Structures are given as C-alpha cells and as structure tokens.
Amino acid sequence: MSKTKGKSLCIFSSKGGVGKTTTTINLAGIFEHLEKRVLLLDLDLSSGGISMALNKPFDKTIYNFVDDYNNNRYKNFNDYITKYDDYIDILPSPKDPRQINKIDSKYIDILIDKAESNYDIVLIDTNHILDEINIVTLDKVDKILFVLSNDPLDLKNLKSIISIFKDSNVTNYRILLNNSRDPYKDYFSLYDIKNIIKANIDYTLTSSFYIKNMDNYVMNGEIITLQNKMPSTFSKDYETLMSIALEALEENVKENLGEENE
Ligand SMILES: Nc1ncnc2c1ncn2[C@@H]1O[C@H](COP(=O)(O)OP(=O)(O)O)[C@@H](O)[C@H]1O
Ligand SMILES: [Mg+2]
To answer: Under a CB-based contact definition with an 8 Å cutoff, are residues 133 and 51 in contact?
Structure first.
C-alpha cells in the first residue's frame, strides 16, 4: 500500500443509466494498466452494483465501516475490502436498504480520507441524486467526472448543475460525453451541446465503444479495459480513458475553461 495520500475521483451525472458504473469500472482497469492501486468505492447506496458487476461475493460494506467507526470498533480499512485482483479492491454499498439511512454523511469525509491514505486512486461511483451524501462527496473529492449522454433532458439537468457548481465555486470537474452507451442517440452535435450547457466537453467516448455483448462481460465479472484486445480494438476510447486517468492523478486540476469560450 502506498504511503502518500492518493487521489479521489467521483463519477457523477444528472441522470441514471448514462454509463457511470461502466465508466468507473473501465477506469479501474486503466489504472491497473498504470500499476496503480485502485479502490472502487460504491456510493450508489440504493442501487450500487459494482461488486455485482464484477461478480464478487462480499461480506463487509460501507455500512459496516460507518457502523464500526461510530462504535469505536474500527481497526483496519482492509477489514471492509473485497478484492478483485492484485490492483483493484472494492468497498461495496450496503446489502440491506434499511442500512442506507444509518449512513450519516459526516462519515463520508472520514471514509474518503481513509480510502485516499490506502490507495493511489479512489474511484467513487454514485447515483444521480443531489442528496446530502452526494453533496458531501462532491465537495470532498479531488476531482469530479461528470458523465453526460446525448439526451435533451440530461443536457438541461447538466446546465443547472453547472450553474450550481459555478455558484459554489466548484471548478474541479471534467465533462465526459458518453456516446457509447446509446450509439443511436445523437440528437445534438458537439457544437449544440456546448451551446446548451455553456461549458466545454472535455472528453468523448465514441459510439464505436458500444459493446454489443456487454452483458457477457458483466455475467463473467470481466473488465473491458483489461481485455487483451481492448487497447488495439478501441484505441481511441482507450486513449480517452487513459487521458482521464492520467489527469486524475495530476496534482492540480485546471479550471473548466467553458466560461472563457463563451
Ligand atoms: N459502452 C457500452 N456498451 C454497451 N452497453 C453499455 C455501455 N455502457 C453502458 N452500457 C449499459 O448501459 C446500462 C447503464 O449503464 P451504467 O453504467 O449502469 O449506467 P449508470 O451507472 O450511469 O446508471 C447498463 O446496462 C450497461 O451495461
Ligand atoms: Mg450506476
């Protein structure tokens, strides 16, 4: 385990089903290529499926961490971890929906701190709801990756979230347009999208990264970016994910330049 504090990246969106969980898992594979120790922290508390998608049976969850911490039973971060492989670990979301309400947002700060001290990079999967837990998380992490689909409602929602970010001086985010989730949806051109959201699109996953047999990978608990052929078959999208990963490891994030381009 690394001694210096690692980085955290929260994958967020204003709509469900845009490819957050898939992107989070794919990024974990990229960090493995970079030989970084990764924690997948599943903060999609109500419907989190990271451990399910990776086919890993688990015992302890975020709930156990919070509960133990609250009752002075916490000893080792490792006690709550489910191992995926030599580089990737998972801290799953609670199994029982009744446990979610017991996760006080004040522990999220501590949780992310502990995670950063134990890993090179902490990837945080979320849901699209702006609740207390997500607000604390967005405030806490080093960087935010906002996943956007080419969809009118999603663009509208993002526009309002960007103005909230602006009002709260949040500048440490990047926007990823995900054209791979739904390759037939392309209502708007990149130019239109930039005009609607009044911000830059920093990264784009192309429609060729649509994986037809995606469910097979999920059934087998496989990570697409760790497949041998991935870097050559999807070279452009592999490079995009690599750029996102490398930027997440950087010390300082530059401001989103969207405003200056207006
Ligand atoms: N590149 C892709 N190719 C094919 N299917 C995808 C792709 N990305 C996402 N999906 C599918 O779209 C659905 C939603 O993706 P998911 O990552 O779960 O979104 P979110 O976490 O934002 O709700 C899932 O069934 C997933 O398998
Ligand atoms: Mg998800």
So the answer is: no
